[in-house]
């Protein structure tokens, strides 16, 4: 049975998509969708966290439902904010 959810993605071109989610009953990842593990540098200090996705979930699978139109902002000429001149 598919485990789907609605999500809003994109920065410059906003899109409403239907995405896959991890299997909540997966015995390998316990529904987390993957495995996180910390690693260190050559001196043994913390250097970051890696993420390995589980096979119960494809984090790149999504279907576009609705694309939102771009809102174009009108550009105004460069104006000195300290000027006493009116903007017209």
Automatic annotation (TrEMBL):
Domain of life from the UniProt record: Bacteria
Descriptive protein name: Uncharacterized protein
